[in-house]
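User: Look at the shape:
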Amino acid sequence: MTNFNWHSESEKQWNNRADFWNQQSQRMWDSGSRSTIIPFFSQYVSKGSKVLDAGCGDGYGSYKLSENGYDVIGIDLSTEMIEKANPRQYAGKLSFLQSDLSALPFDNGTFNAVMAINSLEWTERPLVAINELNRVTKNGGIGCIALLGPTAGPRQNSFRRLYNETVICNTMMPWEFKQLVQENGWDILDGKAVYKEGVRNETVDGLPEELKQSLSFMWIFIIKKS
């Protein structure tokens, strides 16, 4: 597809998914696959910190962050997602704007921490987005990045590349992300898996990290700007 425009195609597809996402997001953050993210984040980021939620969707995760004492700005490429997020905002604690993760409209060092949950998988050039997150984070600031693992259903969105079609979901895996950020201005502080229900703790306890990642639905990284 020689005339493929990733930005416009991605915005269109996520606009189309906005209603479905909005129906699912609260459950995911309150009791589902994302329920451990903010408690994990809170172990490394002090309350009152200024946080960017990069790829915020309908804003429920941003809302949860603000309820936990953070000053949050949520951004998303999809105008429909931001429309659904906007009613959640309130002065001084939580706001939203439409923006591309790969071209953030913020000054250098604006944020104490950044959070990007299952959003880097949907960027055209992940390193550009990673460098943008680095740019807007203060020195020594924290990143909480969750990347879909190999067992995640949304990974099917990259399948059509095998027919030489252009897709908006890239194929970056957790172990690739880890190496990429370590080579580009971040240190790895911690990481944890989210597994599908069929994976038992006793099955994965004692396995090396790369094997845990290979079984994961999602891997959550805590990284620090070096």
Summary: The mean pLDDT is 96. Residues 6-220 form a domain with the Rossmann fold fold (CATH 3.40.50.150). The radius of gyration is 17 Å. The chain has eight helices and seven strands.
